[in-house]
Amino acid sequence: MYSYDGLMTILKEKGLTKTALAVELGISSRTIAKVAKGEKIGNITLRKISKYLGCKPNDLFREVSENAILQILRDEKNAKVSGGLYHEQTVE
User: Fold this and answer.
1) Which residues, other chains included, contact 7 with Cβ-Cβ below 8 Å and sequence gap of 6+?
2) Is the pTM of this model over 0.90?
3) CA-CA 20 to 30 A from 4: which of 28, 32, 39, 82?
4) pLDDT tens digit string along 17-73?
């Protein structure tokens, strides 16, 4: 499952709706429905949207898990949390 909170935040900041974005970029209503349902949309579409909004594709979405522990681990990895499971350690 995917969260498009980043996309929604950027759209809100720019005063745009998903529908207006779709019309402007020629994105199908099916793709907008995928965003609403938390489904993965294609990389080409993500790049198109990010270019239009002036951000990186990874700023638009994040992968989420229904398993709370897996989600915490994923968030730690992405945030590079110090002391988390994925904290990089130097070997001497």
Assistant:
1) 35, 49, 53, 60, 61
2) no
3) 82
4) 999 999 999 999 999 999 999 999 999 999 999 999 999 999 999 887 677 777 677
